Amino acid sequence: MIMGIGIDFVTVSRIAHWLDDDALCHRFFHPDELDVIRSRGTEAASSMAGRFAAKEAFAKALGTGFAGLTLKEIKVENDRYGRPLLALEGSALDAMKRIGAVKAHLSITHEENLAAAQVILEA
Question: Where are the domains of the chain?
Fold first, then answer.
């Protein structure tokens, strides 16, 4: 059963300057995410935008927005094929359990200066 659906779009150029702000990066992204983002070279800003869109989409799927969530506890990982996965910790995992969801599905896409993500929470 679907418990929530969220989608978000982020303009890459809007957040590209975040790469130069360590405090902001560490506030919004898990250290493992930052390692992956920074390893992407010229695609780092696009990677960051996609991951931030995923965090926004997750919050929308919950139906609560970011209230009570720590953003770096919503971590985007990639499996060995590159497929994005949500690895939830702390407040994010608790919020998902609170609505009765047990699985999160994530899709991220990029097109020119735009990144988009969709999250489906399933019971």
Answer: 2-122
